[in-house]
TrEMBL record:
GO molecular function: metalloendopeptidase activity; zinc ion binding
Reaction(s) the record says it catalyses: Hydrolyzes proteins with a preference for Tyr or Phe in the P1' position. Has no action on amino-acid p-nitroanilides
Phylogenetic lineage: Bacteria, Bacillati, Actinomycetota, Actinomycetes, Kitasatosporales
Origin superkingdom: Bacteria
EC numbers for this chain: 3.4.24.77
UniProt organism field: Streptomyces tardus
Entry cofactors: Zn(2+)
Localisation per UniProt entry: Secreted
Listed InterPro entries: MetalloPept_cat_dom_sf, Peptidase_M7
EC category name: hydrolase
Gene Ontology terms describing biological process: proteolysis
Signal peptide coordinates: 1-22
Entry annotated with the keyword Metal-binding: yes
Key word Isomerase present: no
Name of the featured protein: Extracellular small neutral protease
Amino acid sequence: MRAVAVLGATTLLALAGGQAFAGVAPTDSPEKAATVVTYDASGAEEFTEAVDGGADVWNESVTGVQLEPAEAGEQANITIVADDGWPRAQTTSLGNGRIWMGRQAVEEGHDTLRIASHELGHILGLPDIKPGPCTSLMSGASAGTDCTNAYPDESEKASVEDNFGTASYFKSDADFKRIPLTVGRVHQD
Ligand SMILES: [Zn+2]
């Protein structure tokens, strides 16, 4: 009985909706437009260029998400500041959080562009993968001060595409933030 009722309803929708849904289809189709994540580097001081460079690295490396400077007065997804500690990131939710471009690592000889890309990687949902080779962005400082590679490897790129590929199926920002992630922890380096 119930099955028949459901079938009946489906048929009705299909009959009535032939034309009505046609106009709605484009916005309903799961097209993977890039998620835009904005960042505010106004507090990044001498690291502003490195932060912009790190954003460019990600924009060149993945298609599911693009990092753009926030407009003046706009609340950015990512706030980036400079301080004297070790570089670190706090991911509050996928694509949202805070980055500290710590001077300590730079004083020890680590590359500023690699640091910026690495910390942005945390905000895009990547964990540290340490120890690891220089070809891995998320191996961070474990690859040594000679390592200046600022680009994610294939598996790191794929993880970010996965994170934002799923996200693009959700419509509202509230839905977007419901994606389960281990967040809130400050990743040192
Ligand atoms: Zn890290």
